[in-house]
Amino acid sequence: MHYYSLNKQAPDSNFETAVRKGLAPDRGLYFPERITPLHASFFDRIDELSNSEIAFRAIQQFVGEEIPENELKTIVDETLNFDFPVVGITNNISTLELFHGPTMAFKDVGARFMARCLGYFNRNNDAEVTVLVATSGDTGGAVASGFLGVKGVRVVILYPSGKVSNVQEKQLTTLGQNITALEIDGTFDDCQDMVKKAFLDTDLTSKLELTSANSINVARWLPQMFYFMFAYKALKSQNKSLVFSIPSGNFGNICAGMVAQKLGFPIAHFIAANNANNVVTRYLKTNSYDPQPSVQTISNAMDVGNPSNFIRIQALHDHNIGQLKSNLSSFSFSDDQTKTALSEIYSTSGYIADPHGAVGYLGAKAYLSNQPNAHVVFLETAHPTKFLDVVEDVIPEKIELPPQIKAVIDKEKQATFVKNYEEFKSFMMKF
Ligand SMILES: *Cc1c(COP(=O)(O)O)cnc(C)c1O
Predict the structure, then answer these.
(1) Cβ(221)–Cβ(309) below 8 Å
(2) Residue 34: C-alpha distances to residues 30, 37, 61 (Å)
(3) pLDDT tens per residue, the chain (431 residues)?
(4) What ligand 1 atom has the least distance to the C-alpha of 386?
(5) Could you tell me where the DSSP H helices lie in 202-251?
(6) Residue 66, Cβ density class (10 Å: 0-12 exposed, 13-18 middle, ≥19 buried)
(7) What spacing in Å lies between the alpha carbon of 139 and ligand 1's midpoint?
(8) Atom of ligand 1 nearest to the CA of 248
(9) C-beta neighbour count of 421 within 10 angstroms
């Protein structure tokens, strides 16, 4: 499969190069040259297919011949070795739980898939790829776990000191092996700035092959389309118009859902559920795209001022705002509304959501007030114990720690404290 840069100033690349580089040389995001809908017989028979079989069929055209069929099947099997249950909340709202992976964040799927693809591409060479990631919490743990022990890949995670939860910090600082954690004296934006600067620093790029592992990387972005397929399969027999409400930050997840729709999955509409960081909500209202610095909220994985994948969403809708508006609605909610939603979900159905899922639920309700006949699935993107302080503040119940969390909580943190870019650079130069 060929990928082109959405900045259109770089040569086309194949899948491997797009995965290795992350961003195209002109700093544009890679985008598949074409998306071919799956055959009607695939949809007729979907009930008989396992999650792995569905995922393999869906991803195959994006990888092409570059990974042999059997290898790709193994990669998909290993990526998806946990459940993706759909749970009913009301008679027209369900949730798709995406938190049953090793770090209990939906980013596990993309991280596991990307790590295994890089491992395959490195099978016969000794050159090392260095994956640099800045994290506000969840990405770091998912990437650390996904890439642990993968041949030819070293991972360096930058996280803001004192600004990630205890569970999140343990998940990214206790693994060892090929995973290195740097505790940055600054904010998430400072971490991200250091990563961006490193990619443009020729002293570093001439010494190390650097790549990123956030959703700009096609191998982390595309596998997220599987979720929408699994939910479709689970709800197909209900024969209702299917709408998804996606708690969105960088808009990688929702954009992958739109790829599933292009592949032929009958998804009627998408809802981008936002917290106060609402550049897309405003855009759909005013037709003017006006990014603002991010503000801190209780659904902090969505605290993104300028979502990097929005350009891909525009490309999927031919850069036509009318076409986009007919497929996408967006709503923005405050922290107070989010807490009220957590409590409402609990009192109506006994379900304990996390703050991100609660924003998704609010998006579903807002949409249903005008479209009462739809069935809306909101995505539960993290387990509630990852945001224990917020959830236990609202829900009158002690939440049992799941085994994945218990397993890391008493391990010893290992991180190098880094004050500024110069210290970071000298650390990397000695790597
Ligand atoms: C990353 C993340 C999101 C946002 O996903 P995007 O693909 O960046 O829009 C939502 N919820 C949680 C828990 C996350 O970790």
Answers:
(1) yes
(2) 12, 10, 9
(3) 999 999 999 999 999 999 998 989 898 999 999 999 999 999 999 999 999 999 999 999 999 999 999 999 999 999 999 999 999 999 999 999 999 999 999 999 999 999 999 999 988 887 789 999 999 878 899 999 999 999 889 999 999 998 888 888 999 999 999 999 999 999 888 898 899 899 889 999 999 999 988 888 999 999 999 999 999 999 999 888 899 999 999 999 999 999 999 999 999 999 999 999 999 999 999 999 999 988 889 998 898 888 999 999 999 999 999 999 999 999 999 999 999 999 999 999 999 999 999 999 999 999 999 999 899 999 999 999 888 889 999 998 888 889 888 888 889 999 999 999 999 999 999 98
(4) 13
(5) 202-205, 218-221, 225-235
(6) middle
(7) 9
(8) 9
(9) 15
* 77 burial via Cβ count (<10 Å: 0-12, 13-18, 19+): middle
Q: Which amino acid is at 154?
A: R
Buried b (16+ CB within 10 A) or exposed e, 316-337: bbeeeeeebeeebbbbbbebeb
The amino acid that residue 106 corresponds to is F
Pairing status of strand 242-247 against strand 267-274: parallel
Pocket of ligand 1 (CB under 6 A): 105, 107, 138, 215, 247-253, 301-302, 356, 381-382
Main-chain phi, psi angles of 97, to 5 degrees: -85, 115
Instruction: Tell me which residue has tokens 């236990």.
Output: 392
